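Lab notebook, bench 4. The sequencing result for the construct came back, and we need a structural model before the next group meeting so we can plan mutations. Quick request posted to the team channel:

Model the 3D structure of this chain.
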Amino acid sequence: MTTILLAGGPASLDPVRELPEEHLPERLSVDHGRWHEHFERTDVRDVAKGGLVRVFRWSYRTAIAE
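Done. Here's the predicted structure in token form:
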């Protein structure tokens, strides 16, 4: 598992996430309520869970199709 940090987006979204793969995607979509929150990988690193982790910055939101 790889720990990442989500920057931006809704305040109610937990910013620390675990991804199951070693290869980090360029873009990440997180389901949150009625929305998909979209994040893009950056070269920035920040501290989370006692170590440096990759930061994904919020870019936009789309509605979940019904």
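The mean pLDDT is 93.
Will bring this to the meeting.
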